[in-house]
Amino acid sequence: MNVCTLSTHPFNDQKPGTSGLRKSVPVFQQPHYLENFIQSIFNSLQDYKGQTLVLGGDGRYYNREAIQIILKMAAANGFGRIKVGQHGILSTPATSVAIRKYQTFGGIILSASHNPAGPTEDFGVKYNIDNGGPAPEKVTEAIYAQSQAIDSYKILDASDVDVDNLGESKLGEMVVEVIDSVSDYAELMESLFDFDRIHQFLTSGHFGMCFDALHAVTGPYAHRIFEQLLGAPTGTVRNGTPLEDFGGGHPDPNLVYAHDLVKIVFGEQAPDFGAASDGDGDRNMILGRRFFVNPSDSLAVLAANAKLIPGYQGGLAGIARSMPTSQAADRVAAKLGIDCYETPTGWKFFGNLMDAGRVTLCGEESFGTGSNHIREKDGLWAVLFWLNILAVRQQSVEQIVRNHWQTYGRNYYSRHDYEAVNSSRADTLMENLHKIMPTLKGKSFGRYEVEYCDDFSYTDPIDGSVSQHQGIRIGFTDGSRIVFRLSGTGTHGATLRVYLESYEPDPAYQSLDPQVALKELIALADEVAHIHELTCMAEPTVIT
Ligand code: VG1
Ligand code: CO
What we know:
CATH class of the largest domain: Alpha Beta
Bound molecules: alpha-D-glucose-1-phosphate-6-vanadate, cobalt (II) ion
Oligomer: single chain
Helix content: 25-40%
């Protein structure tokens, strides 16, 4: 076996963010850059000799090259087996499924999720641990520490491995097993949802749906599940072939970036249901006919209707949501008499709660929903959950959501993103907020009185680990909130996210446009943080 040990030097920018290491492709293509990070992952692990890893990615530009490099490095470092998705494709949730089903040591996912793809766009690497979930902070910190001390890496001098045909081959001493990207995932979905009922519903002729894979990883999954297994007509899945540049699009499932789907679902001959997923398949957008379901509401509706779904008939242990996510789910949890946990942004914080059996459903305002069936958020799972509810209740998406608001009240919600802001200006904005934080309590702004203002800190109830500086929250006496935080997934300058929420119990006032309902809070956010002045932007780049 021809193991080469190559000397290298640390790159100072390999600190993983909210969800892995994300950089532009040219950064990853620098000599030794990817190799350093992969070796740093391996160096941070213990007792991995002879063990199995799962490997796959969202199919974006550089996926294929990276797969070959990682296979050769894993072989040189003594792994026993790699299960790699066919053509190098595995969605993030499908990777989690494979890690859990085959009880592997962990997995590597190549994705920059919703960030655009192509030769000058973004690439990313995430490491998942043996529970199938994103590496927790103590692991990502250890990886970063290794990346700052690295002086060499190991790689096998061998020719490329065929990852296009199913089956096993040898790379040095290591077995490379090419697995079907979809089967294990589809099988798990069949065990959770009532496929017969959804099949009947989709073939009844009374219900039409449209799913947009945005030329990213969910295409093959959606074709197999919706069209082949559930009988939806061919053409239900749009843009279903993964492309290396995602067709030049931005696979972020929101009203701005999924514009073609939005046009169809808000158009004349609109289908009853529309959905989209992001680049790596872990997020989802749900639409009814001319109706948008806010992701925070989606989590609450799923929780309130979970009893209708075979996989969740036994009830929910608890719910968890990220801090900026609206408090709609808290109301459902209270009614069900179960706990609701508030965690920092990022799926890695849900893993411990699920492993300990404390929560069944989890969600984030950023179009991420999932459950303890795996340890990642799961886009197609959320779509199937909705389809199962619709098939049982035989009501429209809009009716179901309005009904929900009547019962629980409506949490008006919106997120305003200011993208590619000059980093030092964004830091100034957050520092300023920090300074005024202690002075805000008790202050009145129009009809709003500040009840608390803090920098969110989370103590994990299972392992006691503390995560600080997770976003500045201003809470008002009527339950409304404004949250400010900087994104941990962007690669150009800084992205400021402003999260706005207010509560409306009265059904007579539940039909406003959220931007109208939140108008005063939006103005107040600017008054407190001087957003327009400091970002030099008159409007947010994306409003969801
Ligand atoms: C964003 C979202 C967060 C999500 C993360 C990863 O992070 O806000 O809720 O977990 O993306 O999602 P940030 O730090 O940019 O706000 V994904 O689909 O990229 O794995
Ligand atoms: Co994603």
